Amino acid sequence: MSSGSHGERKPEAELGLLDATMIGMGAMIGAGIFVLTGLAAEIAGPAAIAVFALNGVVTAFTGLSYAELASAIPKSGGGYAFVREVFDDLSSFLMGWMLWFAYMIAGALYALGFAPNFLELLHVYGFAPAPDQVGAVALPLLDAAVPVSVGLAFTAVLLLVALNAASTAASGSVETIFTLVKVGILVVFVAFGALSPMFSTAEFQPLFPADGGAFAILPAMGLTFIAFEGYDLITTVTEEVENPRENIPKAIFLSLAVTVVVYLAVVTVAVGTLGAQGLAEAGEAGIAQAATEFMPTGLPVIQNGGAIIVFGAVFSTLTALNAVVIASSRVAFSMGREGQLLPSIGQLHHRFGTPFVAILASAVVMLGSVALPTKSAGNMSSLFFLLSFIVVNGAVIRLRRERPDMKRPYEMPYYPVPPILGIVLNLVLTGVLVWYLVRTDPLALALSVGWILLGGLAYLGLNRWRSRGETSDSGPPETTADAVPQEDD
Amino acid sequence: MTQDLNVIIVGGGRVGFQTTDILADRGHDITVVERDPEVCDAIADEYVATIIQGDATDPAILEQADVERADVIAGLTASTGVNLAVCLEAKEMNGDDLRTIARVERLGGEEYTRFVDGVVFPERAGARMAANEIIGGDVVSISDVTETLDIMQVRVAEGAPAANKRLSNVNFPTGAIVISDDDGERIAGPETTLDPGKRYVVAVEPDVAEEVMNLLRG
């Protein structure tokens, strides 16, 4: 087969295994670990370490499914594109609808994580009082005055939406640098933390909280599940990766493995230094606060060593927010292209060349969700990622049964064990999370159910609208715009 | 049409693969059905299409290409018989919504249009490109949108009979029309001058092509 004969292929940039791995790691590492470690410690105590390890294991099964689907279905749309290929109209619509929501709520989560860390950064340099003194985030739905951090989160979303609406996204090589910065900062955190005197007297007992025992880690797993969301972004750039059928599965597993290692080191150090109790009190800024405790002070230029970590948290949450603004609009865009949302959502803006309407539509939900408490946002996005991962695992099984002769450049080992385990484990976490929401966060649950119901209505409405459009006019015929052979003269 | 088409290409050889490549570049969703495992591997490496490995004349194989959801099927193997068979087979599975295209082995496969919506004879298009290259850049066939009518870009030669003449003063044979003004900036009119060295798009019927070439190229 001729290899260099397609001069018109658009994304010609060739990403290697390293770049692809970095995209996955870049999407996973960062916001989740910075924002949610404190909240996980609040639920599970020192067992937060086990929470992250077990989530890595659960996600690995779905990772196998993603790898197989990505190798067999050459589409850059990620999870929605695969499911669209395999399932009928309604199922694939719901999958896209859920995944879209998951990314949008994740956007709100990262924005909410950005705000306190940004305030902490200002605080380190004395520009602002400590975060907990800057208008506590108490019942924002009832509070007339907008708390400062919510305002900050809102502004962050607004800025990144504007950026992505007006220009096309940064390329993979920039992503690699971003990821290296993030991982580098976490390595600094782990190194200084492990050497600090606080860590030598680390207290990991009792491992599990008194109320609930070992099962207490389950809701914490549900909450932090989103920290492992992101490797699926590798499959959204498959076309640009060289030798994709080998490198995509490798990149998925490599990024998952390295991420688990990094998380374990970070959480161990955080629990070891600040203690589970202290972490829980620091909440979204847990890692940053732990760092300010043990990092050396009096350094040139940056003064306080902890500022590096706080900067890492600010940087990570912003880049993660940027990634999900892109990811959410891509899901909406593909749904528009497939005729599963309004066609205008599936169109590029004539001037900016961006999926403008898709970005705006996503922005509306993101901006609205910034008013949610951070924990609710974490729970909701985790819930919807869990649901969509169940569908992805189901897609593998269905595709194997219905299209046995489909070419699968990567076939997962021990089929059908991994997708079945993936479905069962994700279902368990979904169940635990829903049960947890019923007891502690009915608002998040109501909003989740509401979104699915809204999806059902949108689906019915769109079908009615489409069938009316089809009877009145059959659409203009496709115009074939063949380029006239150009000759230099 | 703003939405992408779901296309099934039967036969992933040279014609099938190039077609897949072009359509994938334009954003359509392609499924290739191909018998040869090695060819399947090669297409998989290019990452442009979903691939079903097997003999498309076997309904159990063709079904896996998701015929129900397809908009178009194109039989592009080297065998006219196989191409017609898969088109008819797919039509039977899908119903009237499916467009069918069959590659034929010789010129003038019009009799097949009773069974399929379109026929292609890719060797002819290839031959046209080869002819373009052989002649050089002075006469370029542009496309094949019409049955036999040829639309081409011709550079007026120095010293050709029509060179430096106004269009109203040149008597082109019936069955030929000059479409564009010099270098394709506007539509030609009676006052258009045929400057040597410049290019004009002309449409010609095959029987007068030679005369037109004579006038423009000398």
UniProtKB/TrEMBL annotation, chain A:
The UniProt record lists the keyword Membrane: yes
Annotated stretches, region: Disordered: 468-489
InterPro entries (UniProt xref): AA/rel_permease1, APC_superfamily
Regions that span the bilayer: 20-41, 47-69, 90-112, 144-165, 177-200, 212-231, 251-271, 308-333, 354-374, 380-399, 420-438, 444-462
Subcellular location: Cell membrane
Pfam families membership: AA_permease_2 (PF13520)
Membrane topology value: Multi-pass membrane protein
Keyword Glycoprotein found: no
UniProt keyword annotations, A-Z: Cell membrane, Membrane, Transmembrane, Transmembrane helix
GO cellular component: plasma membrane
Superkingdom field: Archaea
Main localisation: membrane
Molecular function in Gene Ontology: transmembrane transporter activity
Name of the protein this chain belongs to: Cationic amino acid:proton symporter, ABT family
Organism: Halorientalis persicus
Lineage: Archaea, Methanobacteriati, Methanobacteriota, Stenosarchaea group, Halobacteria
UniProtKB/TrEMBL annotation, chain B:
Pfam families: TrkA_C, TrkA_N
Keyword Lipid biosynthesis appears in the UniProt entry: no
Domain RCK N-terminal stretches: 4-120
Keyword Ion transport: yes
Listed GO CC annotations: plasma membrane
Positions of the RCK C-terminal domain: 137-218
UniProt GO MF annotations: potassium ion transmembrane transporter activity
Entries under SUPFAM superfamilies matching the protein: NAD(P)-binding Rossmann-fold domains, TrkA C-terminal domain-like
Record keywords, A-Z: Ion transport, NAD, Potassium, Potassium transport, Transport
Domain of life: Archaea
Function comment: Part of a potassium transport system.
Name of the protein this chain belongs to: Trk system potassium uptake protein TrkA
